[in-house]
Design a protein that fits this description.
Blueprint: H1 3-15, H2 18-25, H3 29-43, E1 48-51, E2 54-57, H4 59-85, E3 91-96, H5 103-114, E4 118-122, E5 130-135, E6 146-158, E7 168-169, E8 179-182, H6 186-198, E9 205-209, H7 212-220, E10 226-229, H8 230-240, E11 242-247, E12 253-260, H9 267-281
Parallel strand pairs: 3-4, 3-5, 7-11, 8-9
Antiparallel strand pairs: 1-2, 5-12, 6-10, 6-11, 6-12
């Protein structure tokens, strides 16, 4: 059993889909399928079963995933500790599933304080040192993670919208409006779906886009309305002719946190976490 096999298995277990797992690893999908078949042959057990919606781990798959996570974390920790023991600054890989629009400012500020550190941004937690993400409540923040900030989720509407002169609105009042959703953030989608469910509705995105910049342009053109994080959007909305409205009929906050993904916390990880705490403290 090789490390690359465990990495690919863990990705398939996460996404429950061969194609999405392969894309997250930048590996061809047939290669991932072959890896899973080889593991199943080596272990003499099926690790996944097919369902109508994709793949689901078997009992044996759950067992392997528990050990795979431990092994992959240990491998990452060993590399980090050896790198630090050699007195090198080392690099830092950050998975930013939330705060995508803030991350460039955060990295620039951190680099200005700490010098030229090898910083990398990843779209997946696998192989990353830190996870910057958000949850729908304090209780959903993972154990051991550092809660950085919580902010209100609002509805953004164009200035010409029928409710643009109001301070607040119900999601049910916007049921017939096309919603513009971000397609590149799984955690933001989960928070959006949670907000809709708390209002007794299902979220149906009429338009999906892969960047907040495009979302802002679509809003400015009157193409629909959107759920947005108030802290990230207030200045943007003033400049783009978009209004933020409070939501009356749903639980509407998100909780931003940073989580160390390995057991060994390098100096770079400690410094970046401390910088994030200072950065978000200034926004309170």
């Amino acid at each position: 059993m090789e490390l690359y096999q465990l990495r690919q298995f863990a990705a398939v277990a996460k996404y429950e889909n061969m194609t999405r797992a392969a894309e997250s690893l930048n590996v061809a999908q047939p290669a991932v399928s072959k890896t899973i078949r080889n593991l199943e042959s080596e272990l003499g057990a099926e690790l996944f079963e097919r369902t109508g919606k994709g793949l689901r781990r078997t009992e044996q798959g759950d067992i392997l995933l528990r050990y795979a996570r431990t092994i992959l974390e240990a491998e990452r920790d060993a590399r980090g500790e050896i790198e630090e023991s050699l007195h090198r600054t080392g690099g830092l890989c950050i998975c930013a599933l939330s705060c995508a629009e803030r991350i460039s400012e955060i990295l620039a500020g951190f680099s200005a304080e700490y010098g030229n550190l090898d910083l990398r941004i990843s779209s997946t937690p696998e192989g990353s040192d830190l996870l910057l993400d958000s949850a729908v409540s304090r209780d959903e923040v993972p154990a051991g993670a550092v809660l950085l900030y919580d902010e209100e989720m609002c509805v953004a509407v164009p200035e010409g919208h029928r409710y643009a002169d109001r301070e607040s609105v119900s999601l049910t009042e916007l049921a017939d409006d096309p919603f513009i959703a971000l397609s590149n953030s799984q955690s933001f989608r989960q928070i959006s779906e949670h907000i809709f469910r708390s209002a007794g509705m299902e979220m149906h995105a009429a338009i999906e886009c892969d960047s907040a910049a495009l979302q802002i342009r679509l809003l400015s053109c009157g193409m629909g309305v959107a759920l947005v994080a108030s802290g990230e959007w207030r200045q943007v909305c003033e400049d783009a002719g978009v209004r933020l409205l409070h939501i009356k009929d749903a639980q509407c906050r998100r909780y931003i946190y940073v989580q160390t993904l390995g057991r060994f916390r390098t100096q770079s990880i400690r410094a970046f976490t401390a910088y994030l705490e200072r950065y978000f403290a200034q926004m309170a």
